[in-house]
Amino acid sequence: MKILAMRKLVTFVLCLQVAFGTAAVASDSSPSLQGTWVGTIGSAKVRFCITADDEFSSYYYEKYQKKISIAVDSKTLQINELTGKSFSKEEDEVTAHMKLKRQNDQLTGTWINNARRLNIRLTKQKNNSQSGSTTEIRETFEMFGCDEVFYEPIVTRFLTTRKFKKGLKEYPRDILKVSADQTDADIGYDPTYLKFIYPMLRSAVVNSYELSIRDYEFWTSMHVEYESAEYLSMSEYGRGWGGGAHPGSYINGFLFRKDSRLLDVGSLLTVDALESSEEILTLFLKEFGELALDCEINISELSVRVHAPTKNGLSFAPNGRNGLGDCSLPQTIPWSEIQPYLSNTGLRVMRDFIR
Predict the structure, then answer these.
(1) Threshold 0.90, pTM exceeds
(2) Do 275 and 335 belong to one domain?
(3) Tens digit of pLDDT at every position of the chain (355 positions)
(4) In terms of CB atoms within 10 Å, which of 1, 105, 140, 276 comes out highest?
């Protein structure tokens, strides 16, 4: 389920290539300032995200949703608005100043540039939403340092402007596509599965929003691998590119009961099978075939994880990233061959899928 490997890569590249900074303001934000602040500059609605190390501190106007880089001095309560064109904050050009006073969870003051002076009022937000309860979406928000509420207008606009896809019957059923270019009117999702994919959809929109402003290539799509009377097996395919010869690819599997409960796909195997997987690796390489040679796989370092149950068997994906897409593709081990390694839960899922 996790996509930590890809997110760690993105985080590393962002640290190298992010183009935000200022010369006049210290870079460490007070923990008490860290978080999401919502309010107004003049009469315009704004949302601020102040991160722990100030690396990703930013704000945007809800009407335009274009992210603006800022640098925060927690001691003087001064915020500098930046162009975001310089590699480092220390060298970036300041376009406006915000001088603030704080009372409890309220910030008030003045936004000033060369032409205008506007009142600013901000209130610190508490993240009480339950829609970000899954591990995946928490990791996405923590990577950029912003609370879920910071992205609410962005996700809401996405959900209300995308085209629905209906009447799709072929498998894998394409549920969702999100790319770094959210202006594409054809990007949409199948609302039939919205209750299952909602947290992952939010995570994808946040990734898309954050990476697109840094000229990153990013896309993700979700497919139904198989749908049975009791279970829904899904896959997420993603790719992010911030330079280099090849993009980083990732594949995640999700298994839902029709009561909307997300199951751990790893629980389909016994503990012994998970701890000692040489036999499973042998079955995996058998399905991988000659492609293993083309991908130059080091068998001694290869490990795999459960990807998703399908009608024909249980699919496994190699751990780690690979810029060559075919080398990251899951391989399906037939139910008849993987059955000895299935847990009781796995056996119930198998019977439901082959029924």
Answers:
(1) no
(2) yes
(3) 333 333 333 333 333 333 333 334 444 555 578 889 999 999 999 999 998 777 778 899 999 988 898 999 988 999 999 988 776 777 889 999 999 999 989 999 999 999 999 999 999 987 655 443 444 555 556 666 677 788 889 888 877 777 777 655 566 677 877 777 665 656 677 778 878 877 777 777 887 777 766 666 777 888 888 888 888 888 888 777 766 666 677 778 888 888 867 888 888 999 887 766 788 888 888 887 766 666 666 666 677 888 888 888 998 887 765 444 566 778 899 999 999 999 998 998 898 887 7
(4) 140
Instruction: Tell me: do 240 and 270 sit in the same domain.
Output: no
Q: What domain range includes position 74?
A: 19-124
